[in-house]
Amino acid sequence: MVRTFALTALAVFLLLGGLWQPHDPDAVDILARHSGMTASHPLGTDHLGRDLLSRILAGGWRTACVLLSVGFIGFTAGTLLGTAAAVLGGWRESVLLRCCEFFITVPTLIIALTAAAIFGLTPLSAGLALGLAGIGPHALFAHALSRRVISQPFILAARALGVPPGRMIARHLLPNTLPLMFSHVGNQAGLAVVAYASLAFIGLGADPSKPDWGSMLFEYRVFIFDHPALMIWPGIAIAGTVAVLNAVFDDPD
Amino acid sequence: MGFVRAGVFSMVGLVALSFASFTLIALMPADPVEIAIRAWNLPATEETVAALRADWGLDRPLVQRYLHWLADFVTGDWGRSFRTGEPVFAEFRARLPVSLVLGLSGLLLAIALAVPLGFLAAARPGGFADRGSRALSVFVQAVPGFWLGLILLWVIGVQFRWIRPFANDAAAFVLPILLIALHSVAVFCRVYRRDMAETARRPYFRTALAKGLSHRQALWRHAHRSAFYALLSAVRSEAGWVIGSTATMEILFNLPGLSQFLVQSIAVRDQMVLQAYVMVIALWLLVMNALVHLALRLLDPRLA
């Protein structure tokens, strides 16, 4: 119950930014710079008078895009490859698994760094790179799950009854693996948020005028002496999002 | 035998990776010649473009360029930066130590701290060290290191005025190492503790207790080696994470490391630098993998 509520709240917070912000996140208002917390600017404004809350909401929408594409790619491709490896067996299984293990050794952030270096950093390219990097672990996980299900007696019974392979996968295998796969992907989603924020912080090919939580932290770090609140809020947004994701899709250590 | 096999596999993997990244980087949408002409204010005539292309070897087919690059790379000629015109190898040699020191000392510090912390956590499950290390691992997963670094700079630099934020002094080197180590400590500590808890359920552990060893003595003599083995295996995956976080640390603390150079090179699509960076990262991972493998063999004679 609490989990559903937390997840819904997070989704509303992230998706809201795509539809509505109290102010235009890029509107410069030089007279209202560093206004502090006021009624019209609940979190204050930055050095150009841009509304901080609007920028955080807009950044949340961009983060949500990354999350959705990472989840979609990792979930579909990982499940597909892992299940295929488990069902096919034989040399095809070991080739698929070897490939996944090879990709696992290259760290996610490095893949994303290289991809951002090559294609520039947008929520879509980062989501694509992080999602592709996530396929390896997801596929290995899906494979282990599917193997365990396949070894159970009811699969043998279904096979003895003459259930065709496609139906076997759709009716008997996937219903048993998909829920666990889904929570595994959710579990990895927190990593994607941190990785995207890191990339934006480094400033790799990101459009500096677009509000991302990471690039905001980079931009506002110079105001650490006079206006520390500017760099506190985006950080809270990142840490809060990741904490909620990790808590909802809890991994029993 | 195992070593030769692993060596051959890594070399093949390295060559495959280098070709893949070379192709990918060469197919980048932006043309480095155009960027260079704009950056250096050259006349954008046919001759200049052709001359630059010929000079950088961009007019030849991809495979030929790759083979040429590979031969040069192996002999230590990593090409010239499109941006500065300087040899890439010299630039990397000057900057690599900074990143290496950050990454390696972070890892070593993490191992040194994780063993006692994990041991205390395992010795008293549910005790202070156990709950503390669990909280730490939840914390470092949610809070990115660079933000924590900013907060630290604000607290000890601005509030207490113990250090000067963004100054190029010793603090700018010690803080990033501590921050890098913090994440790894949490990971290593949990791995170490989990393995110790598993060993403590084994029959031979009960035998050790029956012989009259105290719980702590038995843990140290009979569970430490296997737990340390598990910890070292975790170093392999953590090595990648560490080199990734040196990137944010170098930007935050303004250290002249590899990643800082990379960021400057990306904007102008500096192919030679990007390619060299990919290779250096791959080599770092390979070397760390080999080192961990060696250490594991020393710890577990059954592997040798």
From TrEMBL, chain A:
Membrane-crossing segments per the record: 61-88, 95-119, 189-206, 230-249
Q: Which UniProt keywords apply?
A: Cell membrane, Membrane, Peptide transport, Protein transport, Transmembrane, Transmembrane helix, Transport
Which InterPro entries does UniProt cross-reference here? Answer: BP-dependent_transpt_permease, MetI-like, MetI-like_sf
Which Pfam family name is an example for this entry? BPD_transp_1
Question: Where does it live in the cell?
Answer: Cell membrane
Locate the ABC transmembrane type-1 domain: which residues?
Answer: 64-249
The Swiss-Prot or TrEMBL record describes its family as follows:
Belongs to the binding-protein-dependent transport system permease family.
- Specify the protein name: ABC transporter permease
Source organism of the structure = Shinella yambaruensis
UniProtKB/TrEMBL annotation, chain B:
Q: Which domain of life is it from?
A: Bacteria
- Which InterPro entries does its entry note? BPD_transp_1_N, MetI-like, MetI-like_sf
Q: What is its main location?
A: membrane
Q: Where are the transmembrane segments?
A: 7-28, 100-123, 135-158, 170-192, 276-296
| Name of the featured protein | Peptide ABC transporter permease
Q: Which organism is it from?
A: Shinella yambaruensis
The subcellular location is: Cell membrane
Its record classes its membrane topology as: Multi-pass membrane protein
Which family does the similarity line name?
Belongs to the binding-protein-dependent transport system permease family.
A Pfam family per the record: BPD_transp_1
What are the residue boundaries of the ABC transmembrane type-1 domain, all occurrences included? Answer: 96-292
Q: Does the keyword Protein transport apply?
A: no
Q: Which UniProt keywords apply?
A: Cell membrane, Membrane, Transmembrane, Transmembrane helix, Transport
Record-linked SUPFAM superfamilies: MetI-like
Presence of keyword Disulfide bond = no
